[in-house]
């Protein structure tokens, strides 16, 4: 954590890659390395303009640069999408609680992503792939609105599937010319027809829009996953990142400090869990 | 060891001595008989007072300013160091509120260096309430109109003389350095003080009961069980979400980090008070908002104070100072909200008991 607490350190944008019409992956190199664990987040600041929370999508094994996959969806992300390679921004972090990878050893791991939510999941997946033999099996199920809006398309459709190491399946909500994959909601490809899994002792990790996580969680419970084995990346208006500013409270937790990764049993009693 | 002021000295002499070279914050009585927290270079006899009850502004302003400059982009010089300070006349509600701020800004995952500096450089001289405002209700939330801990020095005036005691090591050192003005407090004076405390506390308990609140009420249960109640919509009908209750509250600690440019054109960051009554408080990019309705935001304020803090710190984030009631332009009285929540919760439990009995 930056000792100045509320002030970011400078970082240079080394590379910007278009993922979809409204999603880009930024490679940033901070002036000091920022070691992080998969699932933790950072605050990116456009100096003088504002700051917003993002979870790196790159491997946590690398700390001198990080990739961050950002959807253009508000004031700060509008500015970020307008920036160029070589521009300077600010970064604070890492913040929050990571995926408890140490608990995943020997288990079957199901990764469920929706839309831009696959960013944090990619970071987790890269950490898992690094030590593939430590896990019984890794399954990826990903849903996007359309073929155009699939993030990390090459990796999802080819790279992660290489040599059959991973069981990867994608779906899109709406069909389009040239798409020969599955069409339907993410919950469709979590059914018995498309997902053969050991739910009773498997780990499920999910990140995506609230509505997708709500119905996705219901489906996973229906399939027999235990609430304590379902890990969700929750999101609110995380600002200070250290549990002080009060914006991201969810029941008795601050998402920035106690999350953003929660097991479902920790938060399921909250009546406002899925409000976005 | 408890002290009183020697016959050859005066309270003003003692307070001026304690202030020494420190920046002084003390109470100043206004024409409407309220007090304001006034900043000065010295203790000013006749102008400053220890006060009968708390001032208009909460003590948090000295530790968590409404607007705090954090720094300029890539400029490590930060901000100026704070001077040594002393606050006279702190009342128990405000003193107790610092427990919330210490939890948030000192004991979290990353302490706030500015808050830490402000705490370290500020001597807190508390004094008992010798009267109360109409809006006061501290006994309902388990507090009392005098300090039991958290002060460096406590000075209380009675009709029989002053009693001074220390509550911290540095307070003890400071009092010992003022020995020339002090003498051991006689037992009769301490008995008089104890009786005064009991009397004032009882008066305030009675006053609180007259507004429908009982000491020892389980506000956590009341707020948690009234989650789906219509009471939030009813009170939200009048609320104009101005945020005054948040800003004037002695325990509200929420803030935003605001980015902009300093006068020299360099990007800079400022920490500003924020208010959970504001529509955009919890809003996220892309148009999401977990609390789009005013009633939800009003409920959230009570949920934070009477459910969140009991869970994480085993206390309410309300000290019964009544400032929110004074500040509310819609005349929403926090006691009315709490009373209705308690009444509904009690009725619900009575009903479920009846149901079980049948």
Describe the secondary-structure layout.
The complex is a heterodimer of chains A (276) and B (358).
Chain A: E1 9-20, E2 23-30, E3 41-46, E4 50-54, E5 66-71, H1 75-81, E6 88-95, E7 108-114, H2 118-129, E8 137-144, H3 153-157, E9 167-172, E10 182-183, E11 203-207, H4 210-223, E12 230-233, E13 249-250, E14 253-254, H5 255-258, E15 261-263, H6 264-267
Chain B: E1 3-5, H1 11-19, E2 23-29, E3 35-40, E4 48-49, E5 67-72, E6 85-90, H2 92-105, H3 113-120, E7 122-126, E8 153-158, E9 161-166, H4 169-177, E10 182-184, H5 187-210, H6 219-225, H7 231-236, H8 244-248, E11 255-261, E12 267-273, H9 294-313, H10 323-327, H11 334-357
Parallel strand pairs in B: 2-6, 6-7, 7-8
Antiparallel strand pairs in B: 1-10, 2-3, 2-4, 5-12, 8-9, 11-12
Helix pairs in contact in B: 6-9, 6-11
- Say which CATH homologous superfamily of the largest domain in chain A is assigned: Nucleotide-binding domain of ferredoxin-NADP reductase (FNR) module
How far apart the termini of chain A lie comes to 28 Å
**Number of discrete domains of chain A:** 2
Helical residues, percent of chain A:
10-25%
Kindly state the number of beta strands of chain A: 15
Low-pLDDT sequence parts of chain B: none
Indicate the mean pLDDT of chain A. 92
Give the topology string of chain A: H per helix, E per strand.
EEEEEHEEHEHEEEHEEEHEH
Rg estimate of chain A, integer Å: 18 Å
CATH topology-level name of the largest domain in chain A? Rossmann fold
Beta-strand fraction estimate of chain B: 15-25%
Query: Which two chains share the most extensive interface?
Result: A-B, 42 and 43 residues
Helix content of chain B: 25-40%
Largest sheet of chain A: 7 strands, mixed
Q: Within the largest sheet of chain A, what's the order of strands? A: 10-9-8-7-11-12-15
| Main structural class of chain B | alpha/beta
Could you say how many structural domains of chain B there are in total? 2
